[in-house]
Specification:
Number of strands: 16
Radius of gyration: 20 Å
CATH class of the largest domain: Alpha Beta
CATH topology of the largest domain: TIM Barrel
Shape: globular
Amino acid sequence: MNEFFKLLAQDKETQARRGRLITDHGSIDTPAFMPVGTQGTVKTLSPDEIEATGTQIILGNTYHLYLRPGMEVLQKAGGLHRFVSWPRPILTDSGGFQVYSLAKLRKIHDDGVIFQSHIDGSRHEFTPEGVIRMQQIIGADIMMVLDECPPYPADREYVQKSNDLTLSWAKRCKQSWLQSEPLYGYRQQLFGIVQGGVYPELRRQSTHDLLALDFPGYAIGGLSVGEPKELMFEMTAVVTQELPADRPRYLMGVGKPEDLVEAVALGVDMFDCVIPTRNGRRGQAFTWQGQLNIKNAAYKDDFSPIDPECGCPVCRRFSRAYIRHLIQAQEILGMRLLSWHNIYFYQALMQRIREAIEAGEFSGWRRAFYRRYTQNAEDAGQA
């Protein structure tokens, strides 16, 4: 019996699932969205504010935390939970995607990857064993293997070699994880990462190779890197169809609200993305009627809340006109308020999804969501 993940309900018309992850820092109801706290903070928001949105788990990044504040500081602090005062679960990306984004500053080899810091140009090396050690120092409840994320587009031969390297690193990561003890007295789980680009047969091969290693959970990586959205969902479906029902499935780096709903229908349990906070800082709000660009002139004297249906502190207290003024004036409070609202909206979205799956009504709920959510599509694209 899997004590880490429990499957509680399954939709009859789609692959949507309702489950629960159990960690020593608390449980996580799935489908779940993880706000991105890359450098130990979800930008502009305090841990208390994040927790009040209904967030049950946040994401940290090994690459950024390794460079700043550094492993020595984090170990002295007793891990990231204590350092940032976050009492709930944390998942860490291994840094593979960040190294991928440093295409001109890194060199991949069989043993790992050598890269230059984006901060000062200093040279560093990540190995599978090293990133496991770093994530143990960080103290993440869920750790990720080191992987290579092939770019889009990439030819089949390149992606095949990338798969082979990712598999080799995954084996070493798991061995290192099994042969070492957690530093802070609580359990840490390790996820494998499925790669394979946009080649269905390579996605299946990567999935089967990783299943043979028997990880507690599996991530779907290498998507949302420039490929058409149809291909992203196609590859997601290829992988979820091969994964066992008793292990959590995590689609990395996705996405917008409509993307989350679609991926849930394909059987995904976990998500992370910078969109709610990054777009919030740029003046975009997410509502049940669709996306809203608060910088539009139409909101200059609109004294209604961002979303009349929303129960977040921002919508209960502040108007579109005021928040538009703050964003136009580049005031930090405007960025904070939209980020706060957006994270709250994402968590409310996941809560409604979970309730719909439990009630056996997800398919109908999904259709109704799409009908309403597209109402403001044109508005979101205006300057």
